[in-house]
Amino acid sequence: MQFKDVVGQSELKAHLLDEVKHDKISHAQLFLGNSGFGGLPLALAFVQFLFCENKQADDSCGVCPSCRKVTELQHPDLNFSFPVVQAIDKKSDFFLPHWREQIALNPYFNLNQWTARIDEKGRKPIISAEESQEIIKKLSYKSFEGGYKVMIIWMAEEMNLTCANKLLKILEEPPQKTIFILLADTQEYLLQTIISRTQLIKVPRIGLDELASYLQVNKQLDRSTATSFAAQAEGNLIEAGELLGEHDEKEINREMFIQLMRVCYKKDVIPMLDWADAAGQIGKERQKTFLKYALHMFRQSLLKNYTENQLTTTSTEEDVFLKNFSKFITGNNIQGFMENFNDAYYHIDRNANPKILFTELSFKVMRYIHFA
Q1: 101: phi > 0 → left, psi -120 to 50 → alpha, else beta; which?
Q2: In contact, 12 and 203? CB cutoff 8 Å
Q3: What CA dihedral angle connects 259, 261, 263 and 269, to 10 degrees?
Q4: What are phi and psi of 370, to 5 degrees?
Q5: CA separation, residue 348 to residues 168, 284, 312, 352 (Å)
């Protein structure tokens, strides 16, 4: 992968290019940011530039033997570690064909999409203690081609405690000309001792114009539609793809949101409990999508109140509803709405009882909607 294939991130590209050009490459780097912002494509482009035999001013050549090997994920000095399903009792190498297929198809993917590819039962994947032994073993060998050896650890926050502890020494004192690139969506679940041994590189959201241009060209959208989806995705290319694929589901989410707000405003408890019961049965991923949509609507309501529509990114149907609803979302209650819906997303993602969760959430909405 070349830097030109990475959507946006011009400042970060320049930083990574300078690392190689000035030979100031940190032996352990942590790319921190949502998978949809492009950390993995950036890491692959960085490695390809590092290995390239005919470097250009601002990118790898893309055609030399080393570039071709990296593009095909077959370079002997490029290694990968990523979460796998422990119940299958296999290490990352067993899943390399799936890994190569996924990146060839689309290098912008998240843990849920990866899990769906490798395990039809949807079991939670991890990076295990056994995997850490494989990492140490691979990096103990000399470079096959006489240059750098690179280990990319994707979704590093999924390392279990034993795995993380086993890697501390090699992260601090790696073999000569060895580079670790850790990628993580969040540092919340990473050991502080892991973080302290890496150079932190924050991967920001993709710029609105850059994401819109990508969608316009690659998804065959007109500029207005592409900009609308890019704004809703908030700099997340994976989210943009999901929004495009879930346009019908968005309409369902809108109706669910409107129904919840109306019954809560009326303090109509029986219909509210019916709503919570129905929401508890739609499945985890749809529940998460609804909660994200609700957060979007709360933000848009507040913007509508305070910016006179200058910064809103809503559809015509949403505008009709928000014209009256937005006045109920103010500085007095927006924090309560955002915190509770974010908390609900967090707990749903960790398999909380959905019926109980949505029932409690409904009562909180009933309270906050009258705080305007």
Answers
A1: alpha
A2: yes
A3: 120
A4: -100, 10
A5: 32, 7, 28, 5
Alpha-helix runs per DSSP H in 122-207: 129-140, 161-172, 192-195
Structure tokens at 85: 């399903």
The total number of residues written for the chain in this structure: 372
pTM > 0.85: no
CA dihedral in degrees (219, 223, 225, 228; nearest 10)? 110
Phi-psi bin for 52: left (phi > 0), alpha (psi -120 to 50), beta?
Answer: beta
CA distance 180 to 30: 8
Are 84 and 118 in contact by the 8 Å Cβ rule? The answer is yes
Q: Please name the residue that has the structure tokens 């910016």.
A: 307
Pairing of strands 125-126, 84-85: antiparallel
The encoded tokens of residue 168 equal 């501390």
Tokens of 307: 């910016």
The span from the CA of 131 to the CA of 367, in Å, is 48
What are residue 299's phi and psi, to 5 degrees? Answer: -60, -45
Which amino acid appears at position 38 of this protein?
A: G
d(CA 313, CA 229): 9
Q: 246-368 has which CATH code? A: 1.20.272
- Using CA atoms, how far residue 228 sits from 291, 302, 316, 325, in Å, is 19, 18, 11, 21
pLDDT at 108: 96
Return the CATH superfamily for domain 3-204: P-loop containing nucleotide triphosphate hydrolases (3.40.50.300)
Q: What is the DSSP letter of 267?
A: T
pLDDT per residue over 147-190, tens digit each?
899 999 999 999 999 999 999 999 989 899 999 999 999 998 89
Per-10-residue mean pLDDT for the chain, 372 residues long? 95 95 92 97 97 94 95 95 77 87 93 85 83 91 90 94 92 92 93 94 96 92 89 93 75 91 95 95 89 93 75 66 89 94 94 95 95 76
The tokens describing 19, both together, are 């690392």
Q: How do residues 279-323 score in pLDDT, each as one tens digit?
A: 999 888 889 989 999 999 999 898 888 776 555 556 667 788 888
Residue 129, SS3? helix
